Amino acid sequence: MKGLQKNTLYVGGLAEEVNEGILHAAFIPFGDIKDVKTPLDQATQKHRSFGFVTFLEREDAAAAMDNMDGAELYGRVLTVNYALPEKIKGGEVGWAAQPIWADADTWFERQQQEQEMQRLQSEQKAAMLEAEELHRKKLAEDRDGEKDEEADSAKGDPMAMAEAQVLKQNAS
User: Fold this and answer.
1) Is 107's pLDDT higher than 90?
2) What is the C-alpha separation between 143 and 133, in angstroms, rounded?
């Protein structure tokens, strides 16, 4: 039952003469109708023997389905069920008759957002690398400064000079 559109009915088995107006008239006794679609075959520009009726209220759709499933319209027996959402080539949920470019604006917006995110991530990565390099340089300078301080303190302090000589003798 997941994915069912409880307000939208699939109506199959339509005769060739049936159009959206006739389909609307056949289902209006059950409640207020929001939309009626009969997807067209691109080659013949005629409907493909089925359509969709969307009611404003779920209860009206249920009543229409109960009463119209198996009913006859223009000499053909109708099949009426809850409509399943259909994936179209553009990737968005919608009517099968919807053109592929119908969601082009949202696709372009998503592409721009992704590019902006990638740009921001690369800038952030470059900033992090630069910060790490500055940190390494500072640590190296601090280490060099400590060595210089030890050497400077050893020059002025006779005890430090004596310790340095002992350390050199022990190292040799």
Assistant:
1) no
2) 15
Return the residue matching tokens 């959206």.
20
Query: How many Cα atoms within 13 Å fall on the side-chain side of residue 52?
Result: 19
Neighbours of 79 (CB within 10 A): 15
Q: d(Cα 47, Cα 20) in Å, to the nearest integer?
A: 10
pLDDT at 163: 80
Residue 28: what are its φ and ψ, rounded to 5°? -60, -30
Task: Give the chain's radius of gyration (CA, Å).
Answer: 39
What are 125-172's pLDDT values in tens digits? Answer: 999 999 999 999 998 888 877 666 666 655 667 777 778 788 888 876
Residue 161 CA to its chain's centroid (Å)? 71
Q: Which of 1, 11, 17, 2 is nearest to 61 (CA)?
A: 11
Tens digits of per-residue pLDDT, 50-100? 999 999 999 999 999 999 999 999 999 999 999 887 654 444 455 555 555
Q: Which three-class secondary structure string do you get for 102-151?
A: HHHHHHHHHHHHHHHHHHHHHHHHHHHHHHHHHHHHHHHHHHHHHHHHHH
